[in-house]
Each structure stands twice: as structure tokens, then as C-alpha cells.
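[09:14] KT: can someone run the structure on this one? pasting the chain below
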Amino acid sequence: MRLSTMFSLQNQYSSAIKTFPHSSSIFLSSTTNSFPLQTKSRNFVSLKESSFPGKSISTKPRQLCVMGSKSSDDGFNQPSFQGGESFLRSVLASMETVYLNRNPTAKAILELVQSVDSDHIFYDHLAFRTFGVNGYGIDSIAKFFLDFGYTQREELRFPAKKLKALWFSPPSIPLPGGGSRVNGPLPRVFISELLVDQMSTQTQDIIRKYTEIAGSGKNHAALASSLGSLTWGKPLYSEFQQLARESEYAAWTLVNGYALNHVTISTHQLKSHLRDIKSLNQFIEENGFKLNSEGGVLKVSPDGLLLQSSTVADSVSFQFADGITESVPCSYIEFAERLVLPQYKNIPEIEVKEFHRRDGFEVGNADKIFESTSKEQLTRRAA
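[09:31] RB: done, C-alpha cells below
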């Protein structure tokens, strides 16, 4: 991100804050780094050292309000404020820009789908990974979304992976002019965290070391994500290896921090034949991209109403604190088709809204989607 872009983001923080009567503290960075990319191959990209800055974010105090909300008829949360929407979308756009700059597969696939479906690409959800320790867990990034009208929903547990997750439904904001991606209907948010206390002592010590080094970085999770910056220093390669042996999720989070783990295209909201997720999967594979095959390419919920798939994560060249440079997993892109609930099956298709469809998430599906960043999937040959 350019320095001018960062100052623009700060100004938007300040402008938005002036309109709010209540406040709570937030801090903004005064420094940032650029993220030059060179694509090596499908699912691989090389980043310069500055792509994962190891310095903690410098801070200056600002004010941001916690806004109230009310329920709307469609079951989503209706924000009781005006003027905050453009700021929220600006932050999401900055997160998306960092994500697309680091992950050429996601960028290429969005362009491919857009070539068929024009401006009908909507995001089903955005996903983040966190460390459940020292205040760096789900709450650290969730606070930003809650402040802007999101509502906490169900919790999901993944005992084998030692993870838990919460998802958040967006406020219902009218879109008179349409819009696509982050400018379309606001996406759900899915945030997971590693249950650090359940890890080995050695792994716990490494994670606690870096979250403690970061100090108050947990208060700036959304900013760190929008700038593409780690809130702690770069780790040693030996520490990354230790985490990877025990939890590939932990290793990913150590080097990617609060970066978007993935965005998800809502396939049923496409207008072309790609709205059928099976057709979309075929289209993607025919264009040379590798899909996550864990549990089968298509992940289906027990009720048959939530269908999901994802690419394999891109890889990046990362320079560790001890000077060793190795390839590490970055992010990926997901696809989700939500079918109409049985009680609404007789509604004409043209009248079907998002709240008529299967909502929420499924542990079995999500457990397999997590594998998109696993070494097994990254090294698997394409079908």
C-alpha cells in the first residue's frame, strides 16, 4: 500500500469518527510498506522482504464509537447510524487490495469469473485466523465488525485441529445502485482462533513470545489487516517449523497475522451458468487452477443445502528473522452455494432473497476448507 493511501485511510478514520456521538479507543499506524509481487507459477508468488514487515505498528490514539443496532425483517442486523458505511467499505477494500496483491490465484479467478458474469460477483464471507491467547483471538478482529453493526452468531468447534470459530452476520444496508465484491451486499465474517492452551509447551511459548512482543497490537487488528502488516516481529525459521509440525494453522498465522485468509464468492448470486458450483469448479480447473481435494473437491453439509469448494493457497517467499528464506503458504479463494430452505421451495426463483437460503456454516465443510493452506494440498499435483 502506498503511503498516500495509508494517509487517506487515516483521514477516513478521522472523518467517520467526527460523525459519531459515542467513542472507544482505536490506534492508527503512521508507517506502512509496499508489497511488490512476481508470479512464479500457478499458486506460487515471490514477495520481497517488506511484504511481511516484522516491526510492530507505531500508534497514535484516535476515537471510534461503538454503535447500537436493531433487527430488520430479514433477520440481519440494521445499523442505527449514518455515514459509517463508506468507511467500513473503505477498510474492507484495503483488506481486499492487500489480499489480491499477495494472492495472484485469487485475483486471476475473480477476473475469470468477472469475464463471464460482469459485475455480479458478491462475497458470501470473509475469513480471518487468530491466536486465542493474550487477547489476540477472535475478539481482537471481531470488535471492528461489531462496532459497525455486525451481529455475533453461532460458535463452531474443531477438536482435532484445536480450533474454535464464530461467525458474524452483516448489517442490512440497502444498495440502490447495486455494487460488486466489497461494494456489494456486505459479507458474513468468519473468524477462527487456535486454542493455544491446548498446544504443547514449546508451541505455546513461541506463540506467547510473539503476541507479547506485539504489545497492544491486538487493538489494531483491522488496521493491521488493511495495511498488510504483522503486529509482531518476524519469527525464526526454526520456530515456524516447530509450529508447522504441530499445527499448520498456527504456522500460517505466525507469518500472515491478521491478513485475510480467504474471501468467498457467493456462486448462487452469479447470473451465468457458473451460479452452479459444480460448473464453476469445472471452469476453474479447466483454466489450470488447483482445487482443494480434502474430503472431495465439493464439500456438502449434511442437510445438502450448503455446498463449498476452494482453491489451494498460493505460496510466498518469506525471509525469516535469522535470514533464512523459505516458501510459506499464503491465502486462497473459496466458493459457496447456499440452496433455498425447504419452507421456501415454492417461492418463484426471481423472488428468492438471501434470507430464504441456508445460512450459517458447517463444521464438516469448514474443517476440510481449512486444509487449503496445508502442505499436503500445496504439494499435491493438479488432477
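[09:33] KT: thanks! The two ends are 36 Å apart (CA to CA).
[09:34] RB: yep, looked fine to me
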